[in-house]
Specification:
Radius of gyration: 24 Å
Number of helices: 2
Helix content: under 10%
Strand order of the largest sheet: 1-3-10-5-8
Distance between the termini: 21 Å
Strand content: 35-45%
């Protein structure tokens, strides 16, 4: 993962997953020696077939025999990829656009990048103007046995999409929300014709200094997938014009997760700015049965996807749109009171606590008024529980009686969510750092849509003295993120002090959300 300004979504929140359904994987890409096993072919129903075993290493660089294909299974979860064969010849058959392997919409293909920092694989598919597609690469989340979506032993894939003339259509390293390093691009094809997908490792595209060490990558497998979005299912929402007012707002629906009462998949919102002044209104109701942990409250999130073609030199992602989402605002049902608001140009995303069974309005505005040739937009919308709520608001205003944070079961950090009344409120939290060398803290307030301004993190010793490098103030364009702050020697506890300088007069919410990690 490259060093973006925006901190990891996983660092900030205690739970949640990026939910997506993919069809079973198909053929495998040969590597530099033996071949990875082929995933099970699609059957009629149920899970995908088991992965084939890895092929034997080729002698003296020759390709090894392909692993046997897994037995036929059904469309659904991808089969686990076979292990890569031993290194051999440098070219695996699709290293250039001229050698690009065909992709069939709706069918995933497995491959390997070997060596990770030098290999690049090309694929192509045929599309039509105005076709809505999702292009996804799975590496860290391909292996069902891997529980860490950022595990450094798996590839950190970068996706590039080009047209037949070599013009860049879209580029992505990490998705938004960044629940993994596996990229997923939503785009609208600008013309009829062939499109080329390049799959590379982060270190090849941006250099190892900007990525996780390539020496730590031991699993070289990935799957690439292109699917057409038809917006016919719950949770897949295309705007219905006119939707320029609260009265004509398009309804957001949520797709329930089978067998998990009160759980819902992340929704995809899509539309086109029909003019330079077009505004998109959506209405939604927080499901009354939404399941959240007892110590949390419902949080509704919007993740606007970046427009533009992207730029490798400037480390910019883009989905190919000629428009950019600007302000994204959540109002009350009447559309008059602003609850949360962000300016998406700065990389902000809304994550606002709301009330179950209550109606709200979401409004999406564009940047500027100059119409472009392909002014589409996308935003993900998810709902679930937030972080454990502050419980000692009456007593944690002072240093001597901080709220002692407890690490959630199965977590590796401390998480908290609360509210601040800027004129009077101060929140102090105590965390155990015994045996740790560094501390990282990420908090979201204004940049998560809250009305709090100049939200401040201060790390203090138990006597109230400041810790070197332990202070940062959030702004409209800069996150409140303390990364790898050195913990003073022999320190077993630290105090995290949270304050806000003011309240935006037009945004009523007062929430913040924090994650804290102490590392050895």
């Amino acid at each position: 993962m490259r060093a973006f300004n925006k901190f990891s979504w996983v660092l900030l929140v205690a739970g949640g997953a990026f939910l997506a359904a993919l069809a079973a994987c198909g053929s495998d890409d040969s590597d530099d020696g033996g071949t990875g096993g082929t995933a099970g072919a699609a059957g009629t129903a149920g899970k995908a077939g088991a992965a084939g075993k890895a092929g034997a290493a080729g002698e003296a660089g020759a390709a090894g025999e392909a692993g046997a294909a897994g037995e036929a299974g059904a469309a659904g979860t991808a089969g686990t990829a076979g292990n890569a064969g031993a290194a051999g010849a440098a070219n695996d058959g699709n290293d250039t656009k001229a050698e690009a392997d065909e992709l069939t919409l709706g069918k995933a293909v497995q491959g390997t990048l070997n060596p990770a920092d030098k290999d690049a694989d090309w694929y192509k598919f045929t599309g039509t103007k105005g076709q809505v597609v999702m292009i996804t690469a799975l590496a860290k989340t391909l292996d069902e046995n891997n529980t860490d979506p950022f595990a450094p032993e798996y590839l950190d894939v970068v996706l590039q999409v080009q047209d037949a003339n070599g013009g860049e259509v879209a580029l992505q390293d990490d998705p938004s929300p960044r629940a993994s390093n596996d990229p997923s691009i939503l785009t609208v094809l600008p013309a009829d014709g062939d499109y080329y997908v390049n799959v590379s490792e982060c270190s090849k595209v941006y250099g190892e200094a900007s990525c996780a060490p390539v020496s730590g990558i031991t699993n070289l497998n990935y799957a690439v997938y292109v699917a057409e979005l038809t917006f016919t299912e719950a949770g897949s929402i295309k705007e219905a014009e006119p939707n320029d007012t609260s009265a004509t707002a398009t309804a957001i629906t949520y797709g329930p997760v089978d067998g998990q009462a009160g759980s819902y998949y992340m929704s995809v919102l899509h539309g086109v700015f029909g003019s330079g002044t077009d505004v998109e209104y959506f209405k939604f109701t927080v499901p009354a049965d939404l399941a959240v942990d007892a110590e949390t409250r419902p949080v509704i999130s919007f993740y606007p996807q970046l427009g533009g073609a992207g730029d490798i030199a400037q480390n910019l992602a883009g989905n190919g749109s000629t428009a950019m989402i600007g302000k994204l605002t959540v109002y009350d049902e009447a559309g008059t009171t602003i609850i949360a608001q962000v300016d998406s140009q700065s990389g902000s995303e809304i994550g606002v606590p709301l009330v179950k069974g209550t109606n709200y309005i979401a409004v999406i505005e564009r940047v500027g008024t100059a119409a472009g040739a392909n002014d589409f937009w996308f935003s993900y919308n998810s709902l679930g529980g937030g972080n454990p709520l502050e419980v000692s608001n009456a007593t944690n205003d002072v240093l001597t009686t901080p709220e002692e944070l407890q690490m959630p079961s199965g977590a590796s950090g401390y998480f908290v969510e609360g509210d601040i009344s800027p004129a009077t409120d101060i929140d102090h939290y105590s965390i155990d750092v015994a045996g740790a060398a560094t501390l990282s803290i990420a908090c979201g307030a204004q940049r998560s849509g809250s009305g709090l301004r100049n939200f401040k993190i201060e790390v203090l010793k138990e006597d109230g003295s400041a810790v070197t490098g332990g202070s940062i103030i959030e702004s409209a364009t800069e996150d409140a993120f303390l990364k790898d702050m050195a913990i003073p020697a022999s320190t077993t506890k630290l105090i995290v002090k949270l304050t806000a300088g003011s309240q935006d007069p037009n945004v009523t919410s007062t929430y913040y959300r924090c994650g804290m990690y102490a590392s050895k």
